[in-house]
Design a protein that fits this description.
Elements (H helix, E strand, L loop, with lengths): L1 E2 L2 E7 L11 E5 L5 E3 L9 H11 L4 H19 L1 H17 L8 H10 L9 H7 L3
Antiparallel strand pairs: 1-2, 2-3, 3-4
């Protein structure tokens, strides 16, 4: 994996290996510098090591946007409890029909919002469905 011009590879941790589980650390391939060693314990697999590294070095500006959208959805739900109750009822009846061709999805929610006169939301219908029961 390449990160900021450095080639990062996962290797076995050697002294970190337990009797049954090999441990992995991330090192810079050119310099040999240890980039991440899970606070000295090593990771149980190469994939876990790479996943942890990506998580630690992700773009955190997107996290703030997700939190902002989640707050907007929760506020909308608190401000419109009767609408949420109707959506829950609609979802229940769709599930009760047990028809695999009809699912509670963004199209149904979008149509319902349009019928209620709600057009200009500060979030998408997909975001609403992701956070409305949070």
């Amino acid at each position: 994996m390449i990160y900021k011009g450095r080639k990062i590879i996962a290797i076995r941790g050697g002294s970190m290996d337990t009797n049954y589980t090999p441990r992995y650390i991330l090192v810079d391939e050119t310099t040999g510098e240890i980039v991440d060693d899970a606070q000295g314990y090593g990771y149980k697999g190469e994939r876990k090591a790479y996943s942890a590294f990506y998580y630690k070095h992700r773009d955190k500006t997107k996290d703030g946007e997700k939190r902002r959208i989640k707050k907007l959805v929760i506020k909308f739900c608190k401000d419109n409890p009767e609408l949420i109750e109707d959506l829950l009822d609609l979802e229940f009846h769709i599930l009760k029909m047990n028809d695999k061709n009809i699912t509670f999805n963004s199209k149904i929610v979008s149509d319902y919002f349009k019928n209620c006169g709600i057009d200009n939301l500060d979030f998408s219908i997909e975001d609403f469905l992701k956070y409305w029961d949070a």
